[in-house]
């Protein structure tokens, strides 16, 4: 378990370093080829940061409302509340706000910017379908997202994605402007290069973001198993979740990465652009933990 946790933490750091290197390289291209100063990079990061900060502080409320999650008290579902409360005591975390989504789909998610401002939501389907140890595994996984500050990691990544998209757009516009001012072969080549960059940069950025997201899922699996000391519980829960073909109707592409499993049930174009690693691979890693 400890080796899995360390490995996933290190891989996340490596991916973020690759991300920073990529945005630095893109900034160098802007500066060298088109005379942009360092302010171009600073401005791109600043705009992305402002846009992301709103999501950081208010995104949890938006996510909960968009999924039609209903806040519950202990008296509304003492079984679920006690499971969450006991695991929070074990993890040394404050008890998050608990929500229920009225859906037969098997899914759950955690949100919030830090342990003191966190919420955890479960579908009625997952509460009914899972045994005690299996539901504990799911709860521990979601609490690990809170404890590992995954929302902060993804905020940093989203800022970088936004900055790359802005810089790529500036690059494209500069190319087209130059190609229109200089109707020659070199201008045409620059225009083509700009078009290729605007197409590839956001895609590369999105793939790195998804890779970071997947590593955080593996990390939450390992951390959750360390919390319950029973990886098999989460492994069996994931098997049941995988076997269910019921999508979560209230989920959207904006909230998909929050859930323990892809809420669209394979409707994504390819695994390459999935917000989650394959469940079979997650189960395999869980059953290799000792």
UniProtKB/TrEMBL annotation:
Domain Peptidase M48 positions: 75-289
UniProt keyword Glycoprotein present: no
Family annotation (InterPro entries): HtpX_protease, Pept_M48_protease_HtpX, Peptidase_M48
Active site, per annotation: 142
Gene Ontology MF term list: metalloendopeptidase activity; zinc ion binding
Gene3D superfamilies: Metalloproteases ('zincins'), catalytic domain
Amino acids binding Zn(2+): 141, 145, 217
Protein name from the UniProt record: Protease HtpX homolog
Keywords: Cell membrane, Hydrolase, Membrane, Metal-binding, Metalloprotease, Protease, Transmembrane, Transmembrane helix, Zinc
